[in-house]
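Lab notebook: predicted structure, single chain.

Context: the supervisor wants predicted structures on file for every construct in the current expression panel, including those that have not yet been purified. This is the next one on the list. No modifications to the sequence; it matches the entry in the shared construct table.
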Amino acid sequence: MKTTIADLLSSRYSARGFKPDPVPQALLNDIFAESLKAASNCNTQPWQVYVVSGEMKDKVSNAMLAEVMSGKGPSPEFAWNVRYQGVHKDRQWGSAMALYGAMGIEREDKPARMQAMGRNWQFFGAPHGAFFAMEKYLDIMGAVDVGIYAQTLSLLLEENGIQSCMQGALGQFPAPVKNLLGIPDEQGILFGMSFGYADDHDANDCRTDRVALEDGVKFFS
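Prediction complete. Output recorded below exactly as produced.
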């Protein structure tokens, strides 16, 4: 039976533990070529994707961790300063509780939580990472298109048995990443993604719920 998009949406989850085995480059070429068919406003295709693997992935990871450990605050190139309110705050809280619960980390265990957070900038042990960038002037319209692209890519990876995790954290310390990858100043990094073959890490047991149809969609006729 052919796998449907509904099947992929049901099976996909945010993986936070990966095997070190890299995805074959030929397969990556095929997947990323297909991902470029994603829809965009006026066919502008504003995304620029930077994929890191091997030694470069390690260099980028070490550079981001150095920024984090230096005590510097995040310096994202786009607005990441939202403070969730109401039901959005509740969902954020529920997501965190589900994740730390899966890893057996108690709420008051701040060192363990900080260590778990630090794994963001280590790509959760994944063999590959991707940074999603665009020209800064595009603002929210470009960000919408990049989001559409990233979802398309995520589902194509899932279709090929490759797990992923979207990460706002990978856009929080862009300076060392842009320096290592030669990303021009006129481009900004929105967010990133870790991907590869999932392992049996406890974090991969985490699942989050979704709102009911009547809460997320309103039909009018």
